[in-house]
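Quarterly update from the structural biology core.
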Amino acid sequence: MREESRSVDAMTEKSPRDQPHDQPLVSVITPVYNGEKHLAECVESVLAQTYQHWEYVIVDNCSSDRSSEIAHQYAQRDARIRVRRNQRFVSAIQNHHVGFGHMAPDSKYCKVLHADDWIFPDCLRQMVALAEAQPTVGIVSAYRLEGEWVALGGLPHPSNVVSGREICRLTLLRWAFVFGSPTSLLLRSECIRGGKTFYDEEHFPQHSDTAACLEVLQSWDFGFVHQVLTYTRHHAEAKSAFSRRVNSYLAEGVAMLMKYGPLCLSPSESNEAVQQWTRSYRRFLAVSLLQRRSQTFWDYHKTILDSLGWSLGPMALFGALISDTVDVAISRFTAVRNTIRLRLTS
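Predicted structure, tokenized:
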């Protein structure tokens, strides 16, 4: 899964630290592909951290713009920054794994920082402090600035440590949204070094980061800092834009419920949630048949359907749509009938 990479500048091979340090080492990982527009701002946010014991690995995925040049300029200025350039282009998820493979052996925490995002100056210090104070915490999150809005709410203040299974339960039931994107999180490096691929791209091609959190939190607790510590940028090229176009949130939400629902929800919660989301997903696909969606759209959903072991042809999808329409009509008729009865008897 990991792609062999090379450094263009010999200076990027320097040790990330010259002397022993009494603070835990944080590995900051930035996978980048043609990110010259925002990369400098991203790197500057790491250099501005109040917490200074970090190494920074920038993995250039064969960019054709100035991303590599910009990264190497910073590496020449600070020995803690190392640049790796892939010998061949890989997927975005695989590029993350390349970065994980270059973490220092004594790295205690990992902070993924996407090239079009940035972190506030106190981000590393606050997140590391919580994790150090709570050894059972495997993932730390915080509020994030998402464009012009603050996001990742759902935990009442001052709750800063929650059972991992409980956070999984709240996430699967859509009662809390606290993971955000990889930029939003700090992870214990041992969670990533578990001996298997951290992001499951095969079964969760668009939301393997969320699935990874659900996996880690089966064994670890969850920490949350009630401050705005990260910034996430939204634009037309972002992965989230594709997710909205194909509604991967619904598709992979079903897949996550099928895998993690039995582990984190009560039997009744799991069955109800799976039925509800499955019905919504089948109806969405049936409606999409009438909308002449692109081949890319159907290629994506075929991947999800195959992973679920479903074989839904057009007739099956239309049957699901008709059944759902009938159920809605009956529900509305029952509601109207009960309202009329209530008025007649009052």
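The CA atoms of residues 203 and 304 lie 7 Å apart.
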